[in-house]
Amino acid sequence: METELKDFGSNNHRQMDEPADEPRGEDSGKDERPLLKSDSNLSSSPPSAENLQELEKKYAAYVRRDAYGTMGRGELPLSEKILLGFALVTLLPIRLIVGMAILILYSLICHFCTLFTVPNREEGQENYAHLRGWRRVVIVHTGKFLSRALLFTFGFYWISESCRNADAVEKLTGENDCNEQPGESKRPGAIISNHVSHLDILYHMSSSFPSFVAKRSVAKLPFIGLMSKCLGCVYVQRESKSSDFKGVSGVVIERVKEAHQNKNAPMMLLFPEGTTTNGDFLLRFKTGAFLSKSPVLPVILRYPYKRCSPAWDSISGLRHVILLLCQFVNHIEVTKLPVYYPSEQEKEDPILYANNVRKLMACEGNLVMSDIGLAEKRIYHAALNGLFCQS
Fold this sequence. Notes:
Mean pLDDT is 82; it is low at 1-46. Strand 5, helix 7 (224-231) and strand 6 (234-236) form a beta-alpha-beta unit. The protein has twelve helices and eleven strands. The strands form three sheets. Strands 3-10-9-4-7-5-6 form a seven-stranded mixed sheet, with helices on both faces. The protein has a two-stranded antiparallel ribbon with strand order 1-2. It has a two-stranded parallel ribbon with strand order 8-11. Helix content is 40%, strand content 11%. With 391 residues, the chain is an alpha/beta fold. The protein has helices spanning 49-58, 78-89, 91-113, 134-153, 166-173, 199-207, 224-231, 242-261, 317-325, 344-348, 350-365, 374-390; strands spanning 120-122, 125-127, 159-163, 190-193, 211-215, 234-236, 268-270, 281-283, 296-302, 332-336, 368-370.
């Protein structure tokens, strides 16, 4: 998932050297080229080491460093080929079948819970987040359980979760003294997460079952479409004009405010980086997540690995899914920071608010801050495709 939130610059510490051009927001509608071309096989000749080193230095946030190499096309030792071949004919089909069964089951549950109900329609959106009573209870609790079951099926048998103490964070950073106002709701309006993999959403569904921003085409997908409506997703039309963008941004802001004030409203899950990285970096934050002036819950995701990295950085979707599902064990490490209450100054300046939350997450997660964005990611992927085509 990639958000449609406003871009801004940042001058924080530990930044990478990046091109001088200001990258556009990923949902600007100006460039809809796919990040990577689809591939039909799992092997290809590698580009020259000299060219690769130059690219990796410039676009470090998207560099893949697992056993399968750049774009998942590196040379594999014989032992790895044997393991991969065995998993392809045993583990992969089992996980695909079980995963599909879980999706179908939850889709049937959503169909049952939405029978004889009318979806909520506003600002061109359509969802069932307004459902209350037993219908909402069933949708949420079965959604959490089956999301965790799906992660288990994919090899995430254990999830390491830790919560940072607010006092410890303040002592470490020297920032964000408690700005909570008397009488103000303590519930955060949004979850702010770094974006590493398509699995990020699955984890958050199993943890808090939030709403999130998705492409409008998701609403029409078999099985997944109705599930996204039950989650209360906000749909984005990528090629829409600026007036539509303002409408979507307004919906997101109102949903964040509502979640902050109303405990029955689903929280919004937002990825302010706007695209995925290799998990070691934190890109510039877009300000859309912070325009509501509501408190947020920062969450940091890590995916430790030995063979295949779960990060969706510089590898095609199909190849990534196959290699990930062929890995016997996968890992997630989650760090939940204290709820961040913006100061009056931060409420009036969403750029400052976004920068401060970003700095906190980078410090707590030991992440390198980089100001490159989706535009540079497209350039890097195009360059990799060019190098492989020449090889």
